[in-house]
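Hi support team,

I'm opening this ticket because the web form for multi-chain structure prediction keeps timing out on my end. I have pasted the exact lines I submitted so you can reproduce it. The total is 402 residues across two entries, so I didn't expect it to be a heavy job. Is there a limit I'm missing, or should I split the entries? Thanks in advance, R.K.
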Amino acid sequence: MSKAIAGPEIERLIQLLARVPGLGPRSARRAALHLIKKKEQLFAPLSSAMAEALERVRICSTCGNVDTSDPCTICTDPRRDGATIIVVEDVSDLWALERAGAMNARYHVLGGTLSPLDGVGPDDLNIKGLVSRVAEGGVSEIILAVNATVEGQTTAHYITDQMAGMDVKVTRLAHGVPVGGELDYLDEGTLAAALKSRTAF
Amino acid sequence: MSKAIAGPEIERLIQLLARVPGLGPRSARRAALHLIKKKEQLFAPLSSAMAEALERVRICSTCGNVDTSDPCTICTDPRRDGATIIVVEDVSDLWALERAGAMNARYHVLGGTLSPLDGVGPDDLNIKGLVSRVAEGGVSEIILAVNATVEGQTTAHYITDQMAGMDVKVTRLAHGVPVGGELDYLDEGTLAAALKSRTAF
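Hello R.K., no limit was hit. The queue was backed up. Here is the completed structure from your submission:
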């Protein structure tokens, strides 16, 4: 709002809400009004949840995951297979893989991808941490679950180079047709990869 | 998330963020991660802005506006023309009119529209408050700035009936072509109204 008409505290709340991804200036106003209307049902619980999460959130010093404990729940879970580390770019990828629930492994969050154009080098990512986790022993496989983008693949190659000489298998996610996907809508690269990696039916 | 993997406090934050209009379950996760990554720049300021707004927000007992003082800034502003009251359905409409900045009047927020099907009757809206503001005297015009929907117009008629016998002029917003609008995309009702209310050029 150009003019402050709803009190400085509410204006400030709207301004900050507008910086949350998914909300813009207009939807931030709508969100603020909704919160004010649902003061007891939503505004108060959200405010205290936010304060509590803010106070308790930690970045796991082992794998880079976000949790309320350090090391995180996954790193300390004895039922997890510590011999397999799934390497992801971001915590959101870790969450996506956990929702898939296909592997009972541990993770390593890089915090991005190598991108010389954006000035992101190996030291800006959590790659050294990965190397020392492998060097400590007990890890037999590293699954590179990075995005299938140029930056993701560059990062994958760099990590593979770092693992040279260590006794660890480096694998990557399979390329292919997404489950439920229609061939007609897929790009040529994916179709070619799916054909190349065809499996017995 | 079906599985709690990021600590109960973060899960709870995601659940509550998902109930904010404009955010869904998926964007709530993305928003929570963004907040955690921008802990100092965004998460901490937003958390404190939220706590402060929650504590200080008031509904104006005169007009129903949302502010940090009661009566609100607009109701207590001596530069405002107290003889004109703009009646709106919702605080968001008040904010929209304030952004337009076309009138220096006061407001009255109904808190909705009459809607017998949804069980919203006159007593569920802030209509009595409007009648008593007019009855107190000093008000010469009421501008019905309700939405041009069936419910909005029903509410406008009801309020006009309540003002019968009082010394107050009741007006409504003009119908017509939106500024910058193209005729081709307008509905027949709007075009008919714009023709009927044509003005000298």
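A quick check on our side: Chain B touches chain A through 58 residues (CB under 8 Å). Let us know if the file doesn't open in your viewer.
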